[in-house]
Specification:
52 residues, alpha+beta
Length: 52
């Protein structure tokens, strides 16, 4: 399996529909779905109803 390098690919691999996501943060910073991920990044995915 090839490593995931773009946030959009990670979300797709988790089978989370993009329309269900209202915010994504990498290392505490809000980013776009085209953000390139690095080893050790922390990814937070927020969906409607999430209190954060």
């Amino acid at each position: 399996m090839q490593p995931v390098t773009i946030l959009r690919e990670l979300i797709s691999s988790l089978r989370i529909p993009q329309y269900a996501i209202w915010r994504v943060k990498v290392n505490g910073v809000e980013v776009s779905f085209d953000h390139h991920l690095q080893d050790g990044d922390t990814v937070e995915i927020f969906a409607p109803g999430d209190p954060n």
